[in-house]
Amino acid sequence: MIKVDISNVWGLLALPDLLAAEKEVSAAHNTVMDGSGEGNDFLGWLNLPTRETTQEMRRIMDAAKAIRESSEAFVVVGIGGSYLGPRAAIELMEGPNYNLKRGTKGNPRIFFAGNNLSTRAWNDLVEQLEGKDFSVAFISKSGTTTEPAIATRALRWMLERKYGSEVSKSRIFAITDPEKGALRQMAQEEGWETFTIPQNVGGRFSVLTAVGLLPMAVAGIDIEAVMAGAAEAKQCYDLRSFENPVWLYAAIRNLLNRKGKEIELLTSFEPAFKMMGGWWQQLFGESEGKDGMGIFPVTAEFTADLHSLGQMIQQGKRNLFETMVRFAPDANAVTVGSDYKNLDGLNYLEGKTLDFVDEQAFRGTVAAHVDGGVPVITMDVGQLNDAKLGEIFYFFELACGISAYMLGVNPFNQPGVEFYKRNMFQLLGKPGYEQK
To answer: For the segment 134-154, what is each residue's pLDDT rounded down to a tens digit?
Structure first.
């Protein structure tokens, strides 16, 4: 289990506050599990974790093997949960510089496209693909979302120009709605291999479908272990008491919000966690930010951002709390060396490991932020591996569902997302969106 330490929130909360919330947390957990709340038609993510290798997983692993063997690069096209989940998984497990270790058949580079409208980013991707054998995955339930649809059209053309229309079909994979939508129709007409996003699974909860599993498998992550870890988490985190760390996290963040803490800052001293923070940010932002409600989710990387946001955290407006995610030390320890001149004054650290220095930085940061009026929740994830990755995803998904129901909102809709699209379509002159 992930360990949640709430000892650094008691300056603002008291134990009776937590105990008084027990029935509320229990009711929210029951609402998630029995499907009695708003948005219950999007609870399919609860049934995704499995210890068995399903037929869909075998197909995913076969496709990943074919992609790895035939490609020097693999492009994942999607936006929101269609790209944040797989990118978060790959960067957490492989490090943010994962592509520097890749670029050959058997170990392709992995790129993400269709998540912006930047000409510079597109031209950079085209340059990276020039002269390379590559394959693509188009991820979208509808196939009409502007950013990925533009990238889909362009990459399909690039493949057909490079390989011809027939050969390119074996390099295109569509992950989409099982029955309807433009991408489903396109895949059927063109003969692309397809994988399914279940209709009862929303995009931000889709990482344990082919959306996340195919890119993970191409990256060499053991998706059977990921799913087994999520299945173990599903069993462990069904505990109905405050011995359940999911309960502690969901309860404390809501109690702090009621005390005026409107912003949650998710931090880690592990740079590879940065995109996981981005995935978490979408998960909680879209799930809770509605009806004038919501805890605003932001993420930061320590120690780097202590040198940019540290002043704001320490002495800015007292409207935030912090959740710090910690991992067990890497097996390959690094030791600080000596310098006979000692001009940098670091000889006092000679023989100490980098993990030791990191631990003291963590402890010092917690103490400083708590003293500055920022309550801190600490999560100890333990040793990172493929199974733990599945556990992390399930932990936050369940916590999000419980927390949102405690907040009094539907966790599974996102009506506000369409507003900017409507305005953009009007400005672009899309048929059906003419200004009146």
So the answer is: 999 999 999 989 999 999 999
pLDDT at residue 436 in the model: 59
Q: Using CA atoms, how far apart are residues 198 and 193, in angstroms rounded to an integer? A: 16
pTM, two decimals, is: 0.95
Give catalytic residue positions. Answer: 286, 307, 421
**Overall size of the chain counted in residues:** 436
| Per-residue pLDDT tens digits for 45-72 | 999 999 999 999 999 999 999 999 999 9
Torsion of CA 89, 92, 96, 102, to 10 degrees: -60
